[in-house]
Amino acid sequence: MKFNKKSKAEAGIPTASMPDIIFMLLIFFMVTTVFKEFRGIPVRLPAARKIEKLPGKRNVAYIYADDRDRVSIDDKFVEIREISRLMYDKMRDEIAPLRVVSMKIDERANMGFVTKIQEELRKAGGTALNVNYSTKTASK
């Protein structure tokens, strides 16, 4: 009489649900990841005692100016005389009209240079354009 050996039970990890877990993680990271829209140029922001946060980041243009009199709008270097035309075009955009300009000015920047930027913004939008100045919180 011949006896058959019983097969041994395999001790392995079931991988049937692995694709489901991978897709759930992938979707989680796709939904929760926020990409920084504009980097601008490196500036050293001045300190302030009180800071108000912008209500939202929609319809905001970011202007960076450093101590070497360079201006960057939405990650593009521009000349000062081009600012009014660019901002006017952004304000008249039908899909996402510009409402707020956020200025990030280096604390070592020349104030005459900053005044020229403000004059160009006035030419573009008059009083309809809100200007926000970015600072960092002062250490106590």
Explain what the structure shows.
- With 140 residues, the protein is α/β, with parallel strands linked by helices.
- The chain is 28% helix and 19% strand.
- Helix 2 packs parallel to helix 3.
- The longest helix is centred in the N-terminal third of the chain and has 15 residues.
Keywords:
alpha/beta; 19% strand; 3 helices; 7 strands; 140 residues; five-stranded mixed β-sheet
Task: Summarize the SSE layout with pairings.
Layout: H1 18-32, E1 47-48, E2 60-65, E3 71-73, E4 76-78, H2 83-91, E5 100-105, H3 111-125, E6 130-133, E7 136-137
Parallel strand pairs: 1-7, 2-5, 5-6
Antiparallel strand pairs: 2-3, 3-4
Helix pairs in contact: 2-3
